[in-house]
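Dear colleagues,

As part of the handover before I leave the project, I'm documenting each prediction I ran so the next person doesn't have to rerun anything. This entry is a single chain, and its sequence is reproduced below.
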Amino acid sequence: MPVFKPDMPALVVALAEFMQATVQPKLAGKEAYEGRIAANLLSILKRELQQGEGCRAAELLQLQQLLAHEGKADELNDELCRKIRSAEMDYSNSELIGFLRSSVLARLAIDNPGYSAYKKACLEPNSQT
């Protein structure tokens, strides 16, 4: 008989469902508030496990295209920050704006997909806001 060994995302999902269905209804006051925080953190962790690697890979590719060379994500982000600070690259650069917008939306998709401005931005994909 095969043994099912759940992966990390499945374990996080199971824990989040347990917290929401079994633990959360039994809590009151401060503990209920802290329980909601814990459940929210588990939801963020679940989305990070499901989407994080793909988001980081896409961001690296976009950074390499924006800066026109390869490199590590941290180094490329540092370079981009230097170029923005020195005004070598500014907000009139549509590629920069596109990169920043997609990076923020990808992060919000993990951190807080219920955020109203995120939802609005997803409905208006060509908006610069």
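The mean pLDDT is 90. The chain is about 75% helix and 0% strand.

All the best with the project,
I.
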